[in-house]
Amino acid sequence: MQLTADRNDEVTLVTACDLIRRAHALGAEYIQTPECTTMMEPDKKLTLEKALPESEHPSVKAFSALAAELGIWLHIGSLIVGTEETRAANRALLFSPKGEIAARYDKIHMFDVVIPDGQSYRESATFKPGEKAVVAKLPWGELGMGICYDVRFPYLFRAQAKKGAMILTAPAAFTKFTGEAHWHTLLKARAIENGCFVIAAGQCGVHAEGRETYGHSLIIAPWGEILADGGDQPGIVVADIDLDRVKQAREMVPSIHHDREFSLS
């Protein structure tokens, strides 16, 4: 699913829950939401003030209850979570059909860039980078967890694939400028080189203070075919996933088994 997050958690939470219910009504058993699902706050000071601890976070409680009510695997692409540090965590949460947190992943790679459209981003000033890659277990196969800028670091997804991941994820709030240039290419590459499905839910539209995100939530097959593209408006993106296609792709091009150690001079 994709949406346009407000700068206030409680406002977007209503929209997010509605979209999740709509996806479930279409038969989805695993549902993924974008990075910063319920809040896109451009002001660092306000972000940190609004970043509640996981145990007190109203969205955590709401999504846990919703996953249990619907009996789904609910992958919240990320929430802004308060920590005991001076920076927040950009944290993905995977809820089981019982509403339990089955996996957590804190975004490892920070988007610290100035892009040619004049916008500047320094995530490391607000968020503490994660230090642990995560492969979670679903009933159908292993799930590699990533967030947005992580997609530019192939070694993360390679390590997950070699650990058993059959589905790689990159929920995002990709800028419109970089998305138009690189989004589809990067995600297709991660799918093809690892022989994995890739699922990437995205923020879309115009947010507070004019930040634009690209949308185009994607579901990509291991051979690189785009099974679904969410376009540039809020909504639901669905596809049937046949994990036998992972084995088929890796049999045709078994590069995942051909990694070699090498020196660099």
UniProtKB/TrEMBL annotation:
| Superkingdom classification of source | Bacteria
Q: Which residues form a coiled coil?
A: none
Instruction: Please list the GO terms describing molecular function.
Output: hydrolase activity, acting on carbon-nitrogen (but not peptide) bonds, in linear amides
Entry's Pfam families?
CN_hydrolase
Q: Kindly state which keywords UniProt assigns to this record, in alphabetical order.
A: Hydrolase
InterPro entries from the entry?
Answer: C-N_Hydrolase, C-N_Hydrolase_sf, Nit1/2_C-N_Hydrolase, UPF0012_CS
Membership in a protein family: Belongs to the carbon-nitrogen hydrolase superfamily. NIT1/NIT2 family.
- Name of the molecule in the record: Amidohydrolase
